[in-house]
Amino acid sequence: FKFRAAMLESCGNYLEFHRAIKTGERTLSRANFCKYRLCPMCSWRRSLKIFGQASQVMAEAEKQGYRFVFVTLTVANCQGPDLGSELTRLYAGTLALLRRQKYSNAVHGWMRVLEVTHNVDIYDKSFDTYHPHVHMIWAVKPSYFGKRYITQAELTDDWAKARKLDYKPRVDIRAVKKHDKGAIKEVAKYAVKPGEILVQDHDLTDSAVWTLDQALENRRMVAFGGVLKAIKADLNLDDAETGDLV
C-alpha cells in the first residue's frame, strides 16, 4: 500500500500538451497516470475511454444491422470480506445466463462492465455493505423484438436460476433507442465511485480501500464477447483497463 500510495500521490503531476498554432487549442500528449484501479483520476480517464470505445463498437455494429438492449443484473448486498467471492459468482452467473439456449440464440454480442457501490449512509440498515452488479449491452438482431423478446419477468427468473439465488433479484432490461448515448454512459461509469471510498470517517475509508483493493485485484472490469468483441478487434482498440489513458 505504501507503493500504491506513492503512485496515487504522483498521478497526473506531469502533463504535456500540444498546442495548435492556429487555434491555440491544447491537446494532452503525455502524462504520468498511475492506472491504479481505485485512483479517482485514472477512473475518470478510464470511463472516458470506455465510453469512446463502446461508442465506436456500437456504431459499427449498428451499420451491420444490430440493435441493442441494455441490461442490469444485480445480487443482494454483501459484507466486505465476502465481496471477492461474490464477484466470482457474479461473473460465473453472467456467463451461465448467456449460455442458456434462449439467450445464446438471441444475444449475438455483449459488453459487460462491473460496478460496485458502497453504502456509506450510517442511518441505513445496509450501512458499510457492498452492492456488486453488472451493466451489459447486448447486440441483437431486429427479429429479437418479435418472437425472441425477453421480458423483465423472464430475465428475473432466469438470472436467479443462473446465479442459483434463493430470492428474486432486481434486474432491468430495456431496448436502446437509436443514437441514445444513455446506455453507453451507464456502462462507462466509474467501477467504484470515489465518493463512496473517500469519506470523513478515516477508518471507514481505510476499510473500503482494503476491501475493494483485495476484491478487484487482477479482475477484469470491462469485457466484450461475440460480435462486439470481434468488432473491437477489427477496430484495433487497445485494452480499456490497461491501455493508454492519454
Key descriptive features of the protein:
246 residues, alpha+beta, five-stranded antiparallel β-sheet, two-stranded antiparallel ribbon, 7 strands
Model description:
The protein is an alpha+beta fold and 246 residues long. It is 39% helix and 21% strand. The model has no long low-confidence stretch (mean pLDDT 93).
Rough shape? flat
Euclidean distance between termini CA atoms:
25 Å
Whole-angstrom Rg = 20 Å
Residue runs with pLDDT of under 50 for 5 or more positions: none
Q: Structural class from helices and strands?
A: alpha+beta
Number of helices: 8
Average pLDDT taken over every residue: 93
Proportion of residues in extended strands: 15-25%
Strand segment tally:
7
Largest sheet report: 5 strands, antiparallel
Proportion in helices: 25-40%
Question: Which strand order does the major sheet show?
Answer: 6-3-5-4-7
SSE string? HEEHEHHEEHEHHEH
